[in-house]
Amino acid sequence: MFSTGIVLQNCSIMPDVELKPYLQTMKTYLARPWKPFSTAVFLNKYIDDFVQRDEYMIWNKTQPNTEHSYFAEFENIGPDADYNKGKMGKRPY
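== Pectinesterase catalytic domain-containing protein ==
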């Protein structure tokens, strides 16, 4: 098992100005497991309404990398932050 990961705390996830014209045609996910033990935690942050609300994205169909990955959210705010309602939670893949 690897002991690496990322914690994003007290920040904002918002679309770049150049992405805004494409928000209706492109999906954006909060996290995607690039490696088998991918880990990310999102705490006390603002998440704008362009992030897919209900799920994380798999890496690909033949190598989803979801079995040992861990993504969690806690006490986030914003239009797409209501998934866990203040409790530590994981979105499905």
